[in-house]
Each structure stands twice: as C-alpha cells, then as structure tokens.
Amino acid sequence: MQFKFKIQPYQTDAVDAVVRVFEGQPKIENNLYTFDKGVISNDKRGLFDDIEVINGFGNADIRLTENNLLENINNVQYINNIKKSDKIVGRNLIESKFM
Are strands 55-57 and 32-34 parallel, antiparallel or unpaired? Predict the structure, then answer.
C-alpha cells in the first residue's frame, strides 16, 4: 500500500491563520532549555544510561503583548468573516515574562 498525499487548501489556510496570529514575534536562534532526564527505576535502566543530555531546544517565550495578539487574532477573524473577539480568553495559558 502506498500513501498519496496532496495539499489541501483548507489545511494550508488553517496553518496560515495560526502563523498570522504570531506576526511580529521576533525570531530567536538557538533557544536552549535544560533537559530533565527524570528518575529512571532500576527495571528500566540500560538503553539510555550512557546518554548525557544537558541541553535541548525549545520555543522562545512569546514576546508579543496581549494587545498585539488580540489585534492579530482580530485580523485573522476579519479575513475569515468570523465574529471579532474583544478579549483573549484563557490568558493564563499564554506564559510570557514580557506581558
């Protein structure tokens, strides 16, 4: 069996809409975070014992203000003929030290 994939316009439109929400977010190269290997019980030791991972890669904090995000969301809503939001719901889900 062979899978054949094709680009679906509605999927591309959805991805573009999400990207537009974060317009203005600065690009930050090589954002590192500390990798927590956790605690490995004796019965699960073996396969990864010799791997020492100290740093990993992660996304940078969101540096856009709540007003910037809301403006971007409203632009996407306007383009897609969706009722305009007057606030961001679930603000605590957006963790940023710059807000």
Answer: antiparallel
Closest CA to 85 of 94, 73, 99: 73
The residue assigned the tokens 């991805």 is: 15
3-class secondary structure per residue, the chain: CCCCCCCCHHHHHHHHHHHHHCCCCCCCCCCEEECCCCCCCHHHCCCCCCCCCCEEECCCCCCCCHHHHHHHHHHHHHHCCCCCCCCCCCHHHCCCCCC
Query: In this predicted model, what pLDDT tens digit does every residue of 36-91 receive, in sequence order?
Result: 666 665 555 555 555 555 566 667 788 999 999 999 999 999 999 999 999 988 75
